[in-house]
Amino acid sequence: MWAYHYKVQIDFSRPGKPTDNCHIETFNGSFRDECLNLHWFETPCEAKATIEAWREDYNESRSHAALKELAPAEFARQLVFLSGPT
Questions:
Q1: 51 is in which domain, residue-wise?
Q2: DSSP label at 8?
Q3: Where does the Integrase catalytic domain lie (predicted)?
Q4: Contact at 8 Å (CB) between 61 and 71?
Q5: Is 49 contained in some domain?
Q6: Residue 63 lies in a domain
Q7: Which residues contact 70 (CB under 8 A, 6 or more apart)?
Q8: Which residue in 5, 40, 67, 77 has a CA-CA distance of 20 to 30 Å to 61?
Q9: Mean pLDDT, rounded, of the chain
Q10: pTM (2 decimals)?
Q11: How far apart are CA 47 and CA 41, in angstroms?
Q12: For the chain, how many structural domains are there in total?
């Protein structure tokens, strides 16, 4: 199993408690509504290209209210800059 091989800790939300993992639930909803539900993939390569384009837009271009209207990539760059050298 992939998760076991890479020592990933699996943590499940309690049934009926989406607030246990609200940031993941929000991402999953956006991904499904804006990408998966809009496309019928005919090949794995087509799925990979479409999903990668959506992911790039989500992380590089789109503003996120939880990040003070910054895109995640810009938020991360500012965080690294403000943290200074390590």
A1: 42-68
A2: P
A3: 1-80
A4: yes
A5: yes
A6: yes
A7: 63, 64, 78
A8: 40
A9: 91
A10: 0.72
A11: 5
A12: 1
DSSP, residue by residue, 10-57: P-PPPTT-GGGGHHHHHHHHHHHHHTGGG---SSHHHHHHHHHHHHHI
Residue 14 has pLDDT above 70, yes or no: yes
Q: Apex CA 55: angle with CA 50 and CA 57, to 5°?
A: 100
8 Å CB contact between 46 and 69: no
Query: How confident is the model at residue 21, as a pLDDT?
Result: 85
Question: Is residue 21 in a domain?
Answer: no
Domain-located, residue 10: no
Instruction: For residue 85, give the amino acid letter.
Output: P
How many residues in total does the chain contain? 86
